[in-house]
Amino acid sequence: MNILVCIKQVPDSNKVEVDPVTGVLKRNGVESKMNPYDLYALETALRIKEQKGGSIHVLTMGPGQAAGIIREAYAMGADQGVLISDRKFGGADVLATSYTISQGIKMAGEFDLILCGKQTTDGDTAQVGPEVAEWLNIPSVSNVSNILEIGDRDITVEMDMTHELEITKVQFPCLLAVDKDIFMPRLPSYVKKLETKDREITVITLADLEDQDERHYGLNGSPTQVERIFPPEVNARRELWNGNGMELTEQLFQKLKDLKFA
């Protein structure tokens, strides 16, 4: 079985800078990590490979430094990696991002199963996975919390729909967006890290894609624009009060009154 896992590099901290002109996060030079939800997707792929055999590709879109999470995926057991990277892809919304990824997948090969995390910690839209499936014209299932059965032509999964669990069977090729805790992700292997330190990472740019129309990518291909984005303000102010219960109660009431909460 040929499996592709879509992964993303996200900031490892909430202290990130925002480009005041484009309104997007400045990712270059920022401490980063693999999106936690994508670790569950990768672990799912590894378990399926152990059961059914085959190969695992990982694919990510981002600047050159995003190759780091492909190296991490190699150390966990992935076989091949693809980096979609071009300045013209910068500033993409979910529609342009999903289209770019779908174009990259077409260049990477044919896959029976595409896996991705339910969402990312920097965007939280949970839209890119299903949109990739739409661009590829394949069925998709989101909120996958369990793999029940893997056949030769289909896969049966369980979906966590908040108030109920649903079971569905979907034919290959298909895309699954997995929820957290579907499997506990394994740690990268130091031995595999050494074995794969020179393994090639395929880099795909706009010039490599079937559709090279710049109007379909990045900011140009994004019908939605972020009006304003800013890091949260840090409020470290505090007051320390001393007194007995009655005195503290009176102080608290007066504080709430001053703040117009009472």
- Fraction in beta strands: 15-25%
Q: Might you state the CATH topology name?
A: Rossmann fold
Known CATH architecture: 3-Layer(aba) Sandwich
Question: What is the number of E strands?
Answer: 11
Could you state the CATH homologous superfamily? Answer: HUPs
What's the CATH C level? Answer: Alpha Beta
Rg calculated over all Cα atoms: 22 Å
> What distance lies between the first and last C-alpha atoms, to the nearest angstrom?
63 Å
Order of helices and strands: EEEHEHEHEHEEEEHEH
Description:
With 262 residues, the chain is α/β, with parallel strands linked by helices. The chain has one domain: Rossmann fold, CATH 3.40.50. It contains 6 helices and 11 strands. The strands form 2 sheets. It has a 9-stranded mixed sheet with strand order 9-8-7-10-6-1-4-5-11, with helices on both faces. The protein has a two-stranded antiparallel ribbon with strand order 2-3. α3 (94-108) crosses α4 (128-136). The longest helix is centred in the N-terminal third of the chain and has 17 residues, at 36-52. It is globular. The protein starts with a strand and ends with a helix.
